User: Which sequence fits this backbone?
């Protein structure tokens, strides 16, 4: 596995792969890698890509400095997992390489209106501008590629897809299924920050989604049911919503059909998200 640190070397590597006739599979990460990331490496490999993974903890997507400082770092695990899952090139750019002007703002920000302003975007102002800006830069340096993201960050994928469409970027975005722990907890780098009690409470997110995924109800009944499960477990609920999976418009009670349920909550000081498919029934009374 090659390890690179500069934009110039990374851009050159990706171009050489394409020149040699290979497709490039980009897996953007912030490190603290786990089996969810490994599934993205595996998917890229399975599609025959040369796998280029990036590890960069992007400060521009963290609203508050304490959250950024608390973000887990597991460099040895990251290296081992990337090697074991066939990553061909691991890029770990320094902050000065990605954002030389930091902490001053860059003159250019990529902002995807609409989808970025609801749910995660409403609770974490500026978060998706930070994500879109860094992902745009990762795409610009890598060049034409397939880019792999986990469905756990369902809204993030929608933001990235919209950006790719609007800017006609030469990138195919591939969303991959959520990887869950044995008890249903969606894998997340932030799980490393959970105490045993908080981890137990955190299970209510997947439990809430599972419950509404198994039943047919109208949208607000689903919202109430998910919120109740999470609150009963002691989670501070940020949102429990049912939306259109493409536009992220909230589902009305008179609508029926396939939708996405998304939840977020704070458990023991750690903010967690999860989501899953649901089928809503229109309200009849
Ligand atoms: O999902 C993540 O880990 C990050 O938001 C990403 C896509 C690597 C951008 O920093």
Assistant:
């Amino acid at each position: 596995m090659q390890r690179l640190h500069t934009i110039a070397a990374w851009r050159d590597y990706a171009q050489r792969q394409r020149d040699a006739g290979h497709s490039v599979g980009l897996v953007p990460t912030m490190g603290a890698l786990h089996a969810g990331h490994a599934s993205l490496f595996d998917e890229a490999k399975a599609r025959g890509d040369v796998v280029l993974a990036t590890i960069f903890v992007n400060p521009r997507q963290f609203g508050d400095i304490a959250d950024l400082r608390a973000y887990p770092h597991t460099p040895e695990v990251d290296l081992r997992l990337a090697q074991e899952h066939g990553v061909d090139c691991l890029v770990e750019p320094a902050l000065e390489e990605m954002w030389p002007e930091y902490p001053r703002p860059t003159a250019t920000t990529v902002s995807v209106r609409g989808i970025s302003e609801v749910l995660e975007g409403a609770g974490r102002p500026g978060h998706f501008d930070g994500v879109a800006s860094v992902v745009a830069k990762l795409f610009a340096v890598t060049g034409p590629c397939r880019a792999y993201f986990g469905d756990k960050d369902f809204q993030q994928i929608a933001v990235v897809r919209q950006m790719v469409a609007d800017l006609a970027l030469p990138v195919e975005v591939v969303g991959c299924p959520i990887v869950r722990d044995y008890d249903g907890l969606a894998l997340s780098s932030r799980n490393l920050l959970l105490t045993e009690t908080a981890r137990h409470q955190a299970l209510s997110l997947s439990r809430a989604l599972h419950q509404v995924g198994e039943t047919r109800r109208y949208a607000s009944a689903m919202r109430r049911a998910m919120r109740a499960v999470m609150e009963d477990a002691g989670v501070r609920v940020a949102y429990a919503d049912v939306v259109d999976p493409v536009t992220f418009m909230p589902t009305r009670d008179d609508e029926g059909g396939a939708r996405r349920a998304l939840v977020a909550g704070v458990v023991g000081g750690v903010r967690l998200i999860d989501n899953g498919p649901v089928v809503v029934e229109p309200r009849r009374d």
Observations:
- The pocket of pantoate is lined by residues 28-30, 58, 61, 131, 134-135, 153, 156 (CB under 6 Å).
- Residues 196-213 form the longest helix (18 residues).
- The longest strand covers residues 257-267.
- The CA atoms of residues 60 and 103 lie 9 Å apart.
